[in-house]
């Protein structure tokens, strides 16, 4: 676990009027802040043969919602890495039972974005895997890790949003989603982060989501756990309520944040602290009440209110 | 089996028929199967197909004979809803069952084939919108139906919603005088939904080859139907398509429409980009008249839950008195689907033209196609303008 401070940089949003669909315009605004936050990490990546950039691209939600990493941030990171290293660079995600990564990446614009770089798009679900064992609290945790991640330096680029269960999605859970691990849900992110040892985590807080999106116009970079601690604070959660983060950070004190042009207190006040929308099409209480009503009144239950039955 | 008169439909089944033809009682008294009610099947039991199925199951005078769906989970859902026979192939169902009518709730690329199979079996059809993927495909579909003498109804439900019906009633009563301008907006999040992501989104809605188009075919087609219902013949003047994601089909469409008969200019916007949290449904219809505004929001219960509770209490009372409940009573947008199907079934039972028929569905398609053409012309025009070299100007 690194004790280095997290670096923060504001993204100039003064001239913006809401979301800017033009990815070139967004990347232009991100060039300087990406250079600022990546600074020291580039030294550790200078000799890397392969670098894999891992964004939060779990589903094609619109980037203006804050629910996924803005591809413009990923594009800016890739541009910086290509300029400063000779590494073979890939942007990676994984297909799951809901949707193929190719489809998600295409809808989010990664396919067209990467045409301007040498970087490639990789679906880790198709990758060969290496079996690893990671000790957490002196107990061995077996996990299966895509070879691509094992054989390269990893740059993880999470979004600033909560998970369905409440804690932040963060760097550790973004990595945890790419490994196969039968351990408790709070263990997989820890094991994945320890095994993969990402070179740097870049938190995309250009748009944050905490029940509603807000243009936070900020980037953070540092170790995965430190960045997740910052994200946890910004979303109004406590580290103690996040088993994975507490396992890694233990009794570590607050994370130091370097960034002269970033007002963390003001940012924390602006970002809402809510969760994701309810999982059902309708509120679960409404679904349950409707089913009771339908049974008594002899009415039909709409499929949206069947409550996943 | 059906015994439909072969001349039930006019020559091309797409132009508006003279009212006299359709107001005649058709000699179809013996056309129902021998069952006690209208024997009906549901082809496709996905989300909307399930609504149709549950509607039909609850409908008096209708017997749901069977359902078909390629997805095992959907067949299980149909069985749980009370359907005794399910098939994984709608063609086999149509060959095997004695039916009066079928609901075609399949993806649009299967509509024409399903109607053709239904026509071979002599089964009237109620087709989910859009009727087809193009007017060309609709023409073939309707010609097949005409030759077989089967009725084609189309599920354009917006006009069955109480808020939209309220707008029409107020407009027809002249409550705001002349309406020079109107606007209609319909937004939802089909097929990608909102977080948390749970289910695999179907691919066909974002594939223009499979769906016929994007959000304009998915939602705008309903809007065209309502606008024509309100204002008469429509002319599309301009259109612009948008994509918030890198999808092949548009997920936003804005169309400028004129209604010559009423002298009304209309803007239509529809999109599948906005997260939807039921029971909130983002449908806005505003008629700006000389003396005031008619809004669909004024014809909705002020509070959805209060309105739903009232409807629920009414249904509970009906249960006690032995009357039939208002199916999907607390959810007005689903009750609209029930009412649309009920009207279709009544028309079939009485040998009349479906209240919203293939010609209506075909006209909505034609308006959408015109909007696509104009948007493409605008795109080509803009591209051409971009290619023009900026002339050098000497001071």
Shape of chain B: globular
Number of domains of chain B: 2
Residues in β-strands, percent of chain B: 15-25%
Q: Provide a count of the helices of chain B.
A: 12
Within the CATH hierarchy, at the fold level, what is the topology of the largest domain in chain A?
Rossmann fold
Radius of gyration of chain B: 22 Å
Q: How many DSSP-defined strands of chain B?
A: 12
Question: From the helix content, strand content and strand pairing of chain B, which structural class follows?
Answer: alpha/beta
Parts with pLDDT < 50 across at least 5 consecutive residues of chain B: 1-30
* Structural domain tally of chain A: 2
Write the layout of secondary structure elements.
The complex is a heterodimer of chains A (309) and B (395).
Chain A: E1 6-10, H1 23-45, E2 50-55, H2 71-84, E3 88-93, H3 101-108, H4 110-113, E4 120-123, E5 129-136, E6 139-146, H5 147-150, E7 153-157, E8 159-160, H6 170-176, H7 188-196, E9 200-209, E10 213-222, H8 224-234, H9 243-249, E11 257-258, H10 264-270, H11 284-297
Parallel strand pairs in A: 1-11, 2-3, 2-7, 3-4, 7-9, 8-9
Antiparallel strand pairs in A: 1-10, 5-6, 9-10
Helix pairs in contact in A: 1-2, 6-7
Chain B: H1 19-23, E1 38-43, H2 47-58, E2 62-68, H3 72-80, E3 85-87, H4 90-96, E4 101-104, H5 111-121, E5 124-128, H6 135-148, E6 152-155, H7 162-172, E7 181-187, H8 208-211, H9 215-231, E8 235-242, E9 252-259, E10 264-271, E11 282-288, E12 293-295, H10 304-321, H11 332-349, H12 358-387
Parallel strand pairs in B: 1-2, 1-4, 2-3, 4-5, 5-6, 7-10
Antiparallel strand pairs in B: 7-11, 8-9, 9-10, 11-12
Would you mind describing this structure in some detail?
The complex is a heterodimer of chains A (309) and B (395). By secondary structure, chain A is an alpha/beta fold. Chain A has two domains: 6-276, Rossmann fold (3-Layer(aba) Sandwich), CATH 3.40.50; 278-309, no CATH class. In chain A, 35% of the residues lie in helices and 21% in strands. Chain A has helices at residues 23-45, 71-84, 101-108, 110-113, 147-150, 170-176, 188-196, 224-234, 243-249, 264-270, 284-297; strands at 6-10, 50-55, 88-93, 120-123, 129-136, 139-146, 153-157, 159-160, 200-209, 213-222, 257-258. In chain A, helix 2 links the parallel strand 2 and strand 3. The longest helix of chain A has 23 residues, at 23-45. Chain B is of the alpha/beta class and 395 residues long. Chain B has two domains: 19-150 and 335-352, NAD(P)-binding Rossmann-like Domain (Rossmann fold, 3-Layer(aba) Sandwich), CATH 3.40.50; 159-299, Dihydrodipicolinate Reductase, domain 2 (2-Layer Sandwich), CATH 3.30.360.10. Chain B is 39% helix and 18% strand. Chain B has twelve helices and twelve strands. In chain B, the strands form two sheets. Chain B has a six-stranded parallel beta sheet with strand order 3-2-1-4-5-6, with helices on both faces. In chain B, strands 8-9-10-7-11-12 form a six-stranded mixed beta sheet. In chain B, helix 6 packs antiparallel against helix 12 (358-387) and helix 9 packs across helix 12. The radius of gyration of chain B is 22 Å and the shape is globular. The model of chain B is unreliable at 1-30 (pLDDT under 50). The A-B interface holds A 21, 58-62, 65, 67, 97-99, 103, 106-109, 111-112, 164, 276-279, 281-282, 286, 290, 293, 296-305 and B 47, 50-51, 54-55, 57-58, 77, 192, 194-201, 203, 206, 244-247, 273, 275, 277-279, 305, 312, 315-316, 318-319, 325-331, 334. Chain A: Pfam families: DUF362 (PF04015). Chain A: Residues 53-231 form the DUF362 domain. Chain A: This is DUF362 domain-containing protein.
């Amino acid at each position: 676990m690194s004790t280095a401070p997290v670096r923060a940089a504001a993204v100039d949003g003064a001239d913006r009027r809401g979301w800017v669909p033009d990815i070139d315009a967004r990347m232009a605004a991100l060039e300087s802040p990406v250079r600022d936050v990546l600074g020291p990490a580039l030294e550790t990546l200078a000799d890397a043969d392969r670098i894999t950039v891992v964004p939060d691209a779990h589903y094609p939600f619109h980037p203006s919602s804050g629910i996924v990493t803005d591809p413009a941030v990923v594009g800016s990171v890739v541009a910086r890495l290509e300029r400063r290293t000779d590494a073979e660079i890939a942007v990676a995600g994984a297909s799951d039972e809901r949707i193929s990564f190719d489809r998600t990446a295409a809808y989010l614009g990664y396919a067209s974005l990467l045409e301007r770089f040498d970087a490639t798009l990789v679906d880790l679900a198709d990758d060969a895997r290496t079996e690893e064992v990671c000790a957490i609290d002196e107990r061995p945790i077996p996990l299966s890790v895509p070879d691509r991640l094992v054989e390269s330096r990893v740059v993880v680029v999470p979004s600033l949003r909560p998970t369905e269960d409440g804690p932040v999605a963060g760097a550790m859970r973004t990595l945890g989603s790419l490994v196969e691990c039968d351990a408790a849900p709070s263990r997989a992110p820890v094991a994945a982060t320890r095994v993969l040892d990402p070179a740097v985590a870049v938190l995309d807080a250009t748009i944050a989501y905490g029940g509603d999106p807000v243009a936070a116009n900020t980037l953070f970079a540092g170790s995965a756990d430190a960045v997740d601690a910052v994200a946890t604070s910004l979303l109004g959660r406590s580290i103690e309520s996040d088993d994975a983060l507490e396992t890694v950070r233990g009794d570590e004190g607050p994370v130091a944040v370097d960034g002269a042009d970033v007002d963390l207190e003001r940012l924390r006040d602006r970002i809402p602290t809510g969760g994701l929308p309810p999982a059902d099409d309708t509120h679960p209480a409404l679904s349950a009440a409707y089913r009771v009503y339908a049974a008594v009144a002899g009415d039909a239950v709409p499929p949206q209110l069947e409550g996943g039955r | 089996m059906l015994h439909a008169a072969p001349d039930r439909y006019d020559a091309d089944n797409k132009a508006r028929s003279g009212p006299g033809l359709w107001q005649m009682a058709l000699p179809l008294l013996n056309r129902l199967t021998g069952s006690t009610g209208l024997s009906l099947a549901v082809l496709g039991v996905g989300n909307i197909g399930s609504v149709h199925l549950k509607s039909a199951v609850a409908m008096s005078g209708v017997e749901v004979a069977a359902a078909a769906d390629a997805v095992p989970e959907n067949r299980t859902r149909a069985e749980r809803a009370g359907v005794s026979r399910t098939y994984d192939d709608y063609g086999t169902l149509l060959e095997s069952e004695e039916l009066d009518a079928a609901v075609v709730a399949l993806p649009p690329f299967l509509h024409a084939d399903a109607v053709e199979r239904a026509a071979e079996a002599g089964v009237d059809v109620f087709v989910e919108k859009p009727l087809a993927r193009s007017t060309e495909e609709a023409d073939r579909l309707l010609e097949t139906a005409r030759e077989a003498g089967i009725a084609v109804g189309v599920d354009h439900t917006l006009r069955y919603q109480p808020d939209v019906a309220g707008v029409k009633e107020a407009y027809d009563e002249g409550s705001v005088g002349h309406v020079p301008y109107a606007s209609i907006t319909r937004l939802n999040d089909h097929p990608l939904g909102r977080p948390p992501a749970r289910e695999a989104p179907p691919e066909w809605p974002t594939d223009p080859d499979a769906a016929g188009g994007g959000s304009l075919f998915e939602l705008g087609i309903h809007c065209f139907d309502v606008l024509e219902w309100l204002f008469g013949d429509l002319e599309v003047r301009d259109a612009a398509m948008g994509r918030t994601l890198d999808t092949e089909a548009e997920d936003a469409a804005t169309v400028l429409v004129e209604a010559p008969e009423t002298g009304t200019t209309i803007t239509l916007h529809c999109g599948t980009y906005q997260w939807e949290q039921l029971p909130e449904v983002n449908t806005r219809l505003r008629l700006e008249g000389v003396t005031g505004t008619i809004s669909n929001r004024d014809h909705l219960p002020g509070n959805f839950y209060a309105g739903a509770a009232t409807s629920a209490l009414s249904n509970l009372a009906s249960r006690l008195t032995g009357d039939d409940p208002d199916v999907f009573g607390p959810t007005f947008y689903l009750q609209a689907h029930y009412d649309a199907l009920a009207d279709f079934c009544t028309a079939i039972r009485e040998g009349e033209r479906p209240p919203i028929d293939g010609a209506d569905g075909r006209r909505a398609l034609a308006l959408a196609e015109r909007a696509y053409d104009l948007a493409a012309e605008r795109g080509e025009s803009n591209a051409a303008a971009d290619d023009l070299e900026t002339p050098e100007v000497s001071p």
